[in-house]
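Tip: read the tokens left to right.
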């Protein structure tokens, strides 16, 4: 029984099988019938592989962009929180305690970081930041907007990547079935001599 090959392996193997059938067209009466099975399957493999490559590249780019937004967000959060701590006399001040998650901010997820920034934004809006709050609010809004957009982009790209992976699996399974059908047809036509027709390409 043929196992389900990785996409790149299935693509290369499919191309070799088609090339071998075409080379043996003169002494293989079933050649046209086999090519009619394998050419569409090969095109589907190529198409699904290309879509998968593009989806993975887009997903990686989205992750890199989100990481940049996270780094910028963490820097701004730490800087402004430090200023609020200094303004209110220490980390035990009620204004600071309302913002702090007990150090958990250091390991926050992108969504948690966004929530931390929004909480900081709300504190600045009610006067926790002092005279510089206006500029800080603009800065935080810009960073929050970019991070929110980056989170959404990663979510979308992850969905598209999963769809592309499923599509590739379906195309690989279709190729597996095409190989099984080829073996069946050759067995019917050649019987025990089938192994000599296309060699190890159908093992």
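Filled-in amino acids:
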């Amino acid at each position: 029984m043929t196992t389900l090959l990785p996409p790149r392996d299935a693509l290369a193997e499919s191309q070799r099988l088609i090339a071998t059938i075409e080379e043996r067209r003169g002494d293989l009466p079933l050649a046209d019938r086999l090519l009619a099975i394998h050419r569409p399957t090969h095109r589907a493999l190529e198409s699904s592989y290309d879509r998968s490559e593009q989806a993975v590249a887009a997903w990686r780019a989205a992750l890199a962009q989100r990481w940049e937004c996270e780094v910028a967000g963490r820097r701004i959060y730490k800087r402004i929180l430090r200023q609020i701590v200094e303004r209110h006399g220490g980390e035990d001040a009620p204004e600071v305690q309302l913002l702090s998650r007990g150090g958990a901010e250091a390991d926050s997820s992108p969504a948690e970081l966004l929530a931390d920034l929004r909480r900081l934004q709300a504190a600045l809006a009610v006067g926790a930041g002092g005279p510089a709050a206006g500029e800080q609010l603009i800065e935080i809004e810009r960073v929050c907007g970019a991070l929110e957009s980056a989170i959404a982009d990663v979510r979308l790209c992850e969905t598209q990547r999963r769809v592309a992976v499923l599509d590739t699996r379906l195309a690989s399974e279709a190729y597996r079935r095409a190989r099984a059908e080829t073996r069946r047809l050759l067995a019917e036509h050649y019987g025990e001599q089938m192994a000599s027709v296309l060699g190890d390409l159908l093992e």
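The mean pLDDT is 84. The chain has six helices and no strands.
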